[in-house]
Amino acid sequence: MEANAKQDLRNFLKKALENHRDHQEFADDESLFVSGRLDSFSMMTLVMYLEEAFGLDFSDFEFDVNLVDSVNAIEVLVDAKQAV
Length: 84
What we know:
Elements: H1 3-19, H2 40-54, H3 71-83
């Protein structure tokens, strides 16, 4: 994932957190969904963002929350799917 795309992703997640009145910073390896900081509605908007921004098709593989639980996990997912 390119640096500017990663920053766009971080900005998207920051806004999602702020929509939940969570203004705390987050590390790239920090859990966002399993920890409860973001909810299932946020996950759906994230999935739509990832499909549009990176051309992912989540219907092509079995979904697991751990695939999108952190910036690092999302980066691994995007890189793996774009390499195919």
